[in-house]
Amino acid sequence: MPEQQNIEWKQSWRDEYLQWVSGFANADGGAIYIGKNDNGDVVGLSNYKKLLDELPNKIRDTTGIVCQVNLLDEDGKFFIEILVDPFSSPVSYRGKFYLRSGSTNQLLNGASLEDFILKKGNLSWDEVTVPNATMDDIDLNAIESFKNSTIKTGRIPSIKESTTDDFILKNLGLIDDNGTLNRAAILLFGKEPTKYFTSAYLKIGKFGDSPTELLSQDVIESNAFELADATIEVLNNKYIVRDISYDGLQRIETPEYPFEALREALFNAIVHRSYQVTPITIRIYDDRIAIWNIGELPEQLSAEDLKKEHGSYPRNKLLANAFYKGGHIESWGRGTLKIIEECKKHGLVEPLIHEHGGGLSVTIFKDIYNEKYLSKLDLNDRQKIAIKAVKKAGHITNLEYRALFDITDRTVLRDVDELIKLSIFKKEGEGRATKYVIDISGYTL
MF terms per GO, please (predicted)? Predict the structure, then answer.
């Protein structure tokens, strides 16, 4: 049996293995076996009596915790078992913190260490106070804008009777009784959030055929409460093309991407991102637009979970609370579902939501599997025409495929099976209800 999340084997003892005690204690607990090889076979210890006496004290003196240290034997070969319980408070080894992850022991530092310590204290990053920040750092117009939004939502009923900025900040948990502001206050309503958090901004880049061909870019610096609208304004004025049509004499302009989906993706990025490292980025290509924020999904969720009904686990609790009370988001984990819904209403395929680069990306496709893209694939003409037909109609059946080209069922199945293997089509339904739709997972970004 291989090593796993809660088991570690060591053939002999070295004091540096006390790091594993810290790692297990900071995770879900576990067992360290001394006198077993990498395959888990008992090789025995000649100094087991000495270790049995020394290890409990070494563990206590270097990590501050007490563990069970047991002597076991198998076929006359003695080995030692160290049982480590999980601890609610952080456990260090010589001032450093470790965390068991899979079968590895990770040294925590920088942003990962801060996140870990906050999590152990049941705090979110945005709840930490900023001692040197004052009300002079707060944009009072932004608070007034928030107040007007909240009056419309009715989510702070008492806000109509109070006009003080202090009341709003306290209601949102952004200022303590001593008048000290926290990180959320600066991010939400700060005049210059980047003064305190250098990555609290957003970058837009327009790219050519490759990620290295940058054609133009914009940087948007704003408080979190106004960042989404400021970004939508730049996208609308500079980057988003509108299709022009007429209904009689009435001119109709339809943006290539649904603004409601973009706005929702931005709200999600602002609320759930990690603010210690890098800004939110928007990458625009001819066929797609991708919004990415640093910060992995919480352990309760996967990218697939975001496509169905799921709970809400905000990384930044105070930001999420303010956005909810201001009417920008719901507290039901419906953000990604709304993005998918708005894309479908706009006639676009389901967006691609996936984790990469230590963060989460939402990619909305304008023209997936276009002529230029299909020309690079080893497909026959029928398959290329069928892909275009599915893009237009939303799906295709075996009967429709056969009628489109006047071919046999065997040929239809061969064509479709190849498209499914390439993850260009995916099957929905069974029997006569079977249909094939576009599968975005086969699209190479």
Answer: helicase activity
